[in-house]
Specification:
Blueprint (H helix, E strand, L loop, with lengths): L7 E2 L4 E6 L2 E6 L1 H7 L2 E5 L6 E2 L4 E7 L3 E5 L4 E6 L2 H4 L3 H4 L8 E5 L11 H9 L1
């Protein structure tokens, strides 16, 4: 499994990258492989200010629906428009074209509280 070193991770299997105070968020390769073929991504929180660990949407796979949790407090200002027509991008490119939301982060220091690649890898590989 691939866990890029430049990202931070949550125990709920979201990843986050930070550029200034803008975070891009998606789900990890591990999460998409556990979910299976993703058929729908529902995110209706555009322009909403949410706290860390809040549910910002759901991802629906053939057999299950799973909540998506925001890793940090901030305002969602962009949702990946490609996921409406191609939710399978989350499966094929979870760290690239399959990103889910962009968030204006309230406090960038919150990212330091998240797991690094090594800690996340040991969490999922037991």
């Amino acid at each position: 499994m691939n866990f890029p070193e430049n990202l931070r991770y949550t125990k709920d299997h979201e990843w986050i990258s930070l550029d200034g105070d803008v975070a891009t968020i998606g789900i990890t390769e591990f999460a998409q492989s556990e979910l299976g073929d993703i058929v729908y991504v529902e995110i209706e929180t555009l322009n909403q200010h949410l706290g860390a660990d809040s549910v910002f949407g759901t991802v629906e796979a053939v057999k299950t629906v799973s909540d998506l949790f925001l890793p940090v407090t901030g305002t969602i200002f962009e949702i990946n428009p490609e996921l409406n027509n191609q939710p399978e991008l989350v499966n094929s490119d979870p760290y690239g074209e399959g990103w889910m939301v962009k968030v204006k982060v309230d406090d960038t220091a919150d990212i330091e509280k998240l797991l690094n690649a090594e800690a996340y890898a040991s969490l999922v590989q037991g």
